[in-house]
Specification:
Elements: H1 2-13, H2 18-28, H3 36-46, H4 69-80, H5 85-97, H6 100-107, H7 122-152, H8 158-164, H9 176-185, H10 196-219, H11 224-236, H12 243-254, E1 258-259, E2 266-269, E3 277-279
Antiparallel strand pairs: 1-2, 2-3
């Protein structure tokens, strides 16, 4: 999904042809983004219909099919309480792509932003954003595996898993070695984002990452995987978020109670009665 969003944004924001995009992905595959999927993306984009100048990718219908793996993975994450936002957004994006007839009608009706000029350096920015978003995707995936291991008593060696995936797997990538090293140094690491190497990489990519999301919004190009990865990163790095209001609202309409920061216990405010707070545990 991240690769598809990269293609979409560069294709429409910079008007790059499939051949030009193939060259971009080919160059990226020679650096830290090196992976099986980046490699084959360059091959797919470079492919032309036999005997024709048109690119094959332009002749392929934009309705993504799915076997159910992503849906099952998202369901498992929900059951384990793991915020697997990247894969879940990818599943939703495929579902939306399958609504072709509705999208065709909506394209003639629903308004979007006025055409905006993409900023200079967008290709380099997307390279940074793609790397950061991949880190988040792997961090979420390994958190999911860790939660499953604890729930089902699998006793998984997460570092060893990264080693296994280096060969014969579609998610094999250059930085799987870095993941192995991170778990060797800290076997109980709660998130890959906290490992020094990935922490520094995410910090360095931040400015470009945010520019990419803004550029896509300005262009009216949906990038749910990029945006959700950045939102996850921002949510994870905050010591205090807005869930306190959610708990207050849940207590108001459903008497679900809440916990306070200044004292122990569970509490409920009698909103529709005398407005007094009572301890419920």
């Amino acid at each position: 999904q991240l690769i598809a969003e990269t293609y979409d944004l560069l294709r429409h924001a910079l008007d790059l042809s499939p051949d030009e995009l193939a060259s971009v992905f080919r160059q990226w595959n020679e650096g830290r983004l090196q992976s099986y999927l980046i490699e084959i993306t360059s091959h797919v984009l470079a492919k032309h219909d036999d005997g024709a100048s048109a690119s094959l990718v332009d002749a392929i219908e934009d309705e993504a099919e799915q076997k159910g793996t992503g849906r099952w993975t998202s369901q498992s994450a929900l059951e384990l309480g793991v915020p697997l936002t990247g894969i879940t957004e990818a599943v939703f994006a495929r579902m939306l792509s399958s609504q072709k007839a509705q999208r065709v009608k909506a394209a003639a009706i629903l308004a979007g932003p006025a055409a905006a000029k993409a900023h200079e350096g967008l290709v380099d920015d997307i390279q940074e954003a793609l790397y950061a978003s991949k880190i988040v995707a792997y961090a979420q995936g390994f958190e999911h595996l860790s939660a499953g291991s604890k729930e089902h008593r699998w006793d998984l060696d997460l570092g060893a898993l990264a080693t296994i995936w280096r060969g014969g797997c579609i998610i094999r990538a250059k930085f799987l070695d870095r993941i192995k090293e991170a778990y060797e140094e800290a076997p109980d690491l709660p998130s890959l984002m906290l490992a020094p190497f990935f922490q520094d990489a995410l910090a360095a990519a931040q400015p470009a990452w945010r520019r990419v999301v803004k550029a896509a919004v300005d262009q009216g190009i949906p990038i749910p995987a990029f945006a959700s990865s950045l939102a996850y990163y921002d949510g994870y790095r905050r010591a205090r978020g807005p869930a306190n209001l959610i708990q207050g609202l849940r207590d108001y309409f459903g008497a679900h109670t809440y916990h306070r920061v200044d004292r122990e216990g569970a509490y409920h405010t009698r909103w529709a009665q005398d407005g007094e707070e009572v301890r419920t545990d």
